[in-house]
Amino acid sequence: MHRLPKEVGSWIYNFFYDEHSIAYLKIDAELCVAAKGGNVKHYGLSSLRIGQPVADQLEFMEGLLPSPELPYHMAMVELPSGRVADLHLFADSAYVWLLFLDATVERDNRQRLQQKAYEMTLLQERERQLNEKLQSVNEALRESQEGLQREYQRAETLLLNILPASIAERLKADEQIADNHAEVSVLFADIVGFTERARSVGAVTTLAILNYFFKAADRLSERYGCEKIKTIGDCVMVVAGLPAARSDHAEALARYALELRKAVKRERFTGGRLRLRIGIHSGPIVAGVIGKRRFAYDLWGETVNLAARIQTSAEPDEIRISDATHTLLGPNFACEPLAETELRGTGRVRMWRLPA
Amino acid sequence: MLQKKICMLGGFGVGKTSLVRRFVQSIFSETYLTTVGVKIDKKSVALPGKTVDLILWDLAGEDDIGSFRVSHVRGATGLVLVVDGTRAATLAAALTLRERVEAEFGTMPFVLLFNKSDLADRWAISDGDINELRQLGWQIYLTSALSGEHVDDAFRQLASMVAR
User: Fold this and answer.
1) Helix locations, chain A, DSSP H
2) Does B122 reach chain A within 8 Å, measured CB to CB?
3) Model ipTM value
4) Which of A102, A109, A264, B110 is the most exposed place for a label (fewest CB within 10 A)?
5) pLDDT digit string (tens) for B93-136?
6) Are residues A188 and A275 in the same domain?
7) Which of B15, B29, B46, B30 is nearest to B151 (CA)?
8) CA nearest to B112, candidates A115, A303, B55, B129
9) In CATH, what number is assigned to the domain containing residue A10?
């Protein structure tokens, strides 16, 4: 024991007793209350009966005794009575002592501090969660924007494949498209004996032939400023003077026809080289877009019909043009005149042959 | 008299005190008041053929699990493990606490509560994780101390397990 003057010892004892409302229980080997003392009232222990099991009268003692780890200290226990106590259990040779020391003030102080700390931690955790969520939402937004952009570009590319650029623009602006064009030239070209050939060479070669033919038609469209309007089976329909008018549409299409014939001649396929029948006619047409979900830009009018008939009447490897086209071409092309021919639905027609 | 000590275990702020208040007094407070030390409550549960008094030890949820006083669990016959469903890390905390308790006192019956089920939009635990634990045969409840959902069920389940 530290040596303190008895005045100090007594002061400390009184101070401690007043501040901490000391009470005690003495518990015997049968775990019954053997004695009680101190400020028992403070902890609601007044009615505790001597000789009765402690755990039946103090619920928190349930299961605690006998304990191999005495002395044992439980800090800041809030009892059902509402009192907060530091509980000390210690043993002598015959009894276990249970000491109650009021710890309400200490608990409240500690709680204020702890509360601040935990609230801060919870806020930080919440902030982190929200940031993570924000990031993932942003990420998803960016991805869907990129996806949308890709879709848009794909749609645009598809549209441009189907329609002339200026028409596609107008279509996107929700315009109805049906335009009169006074002066255009229309070409049809198809492969001689395609159906028979397709039957004999099989699907793969047939596709290769069509692919080659149509790719050449596309490529040359770009070069000569013509528009490939559509393909019908093995037949392509090409127009010059559309959608922007041009005075040399007949010449452009004539050059196109010559190149197309040349390109097709160059390539060899199973079943021999390809031969085309080509027909051209010039005149007014109506051009427009029909359909809402699946667009088709197409041409209508007598000019179109006659061009098709001329093409059908052409010989293999021949580029046959109408009189109207011939007039427009002028002297730059030394065309051979053909005998007037009866064409279905049109009567007798003067036509010319474009030379090699 | 059938009297059983039950310990509430889990990280801080998961809702141990709120669950006890909901179960014992049928009330809920939005205000978070951290528990320091230990709070002791008692609730009688009527089971078929008997009544068991649950002595609920609401132990402070430590920020640092290492500082948890395992010795407070002495004499307990069952555990209520509490997880905050909106904070995934609290699951690991609850499981660690259980391991520490079992290392000291051996296995004992427990129920596992994923609390704050009312905060669905902030839920952070996957159904897969919960199902995986259910596969172990664990008694698992999605509780809300706020609405009271499944709170009684969970405590009654544990009561019947410890009263056996």
Assistant:
1) 6-20, 54-57, 104-162, 165-172, 194-201, 203-224, 249-266, 302-313, 323-329
2) yes
3) 0.84
4) A109
5) 999 999 999 999 999 999 999 999 999 999 999 999 999 999 99
6) yes
7) B15
8) B129
9) 3.30.450.20
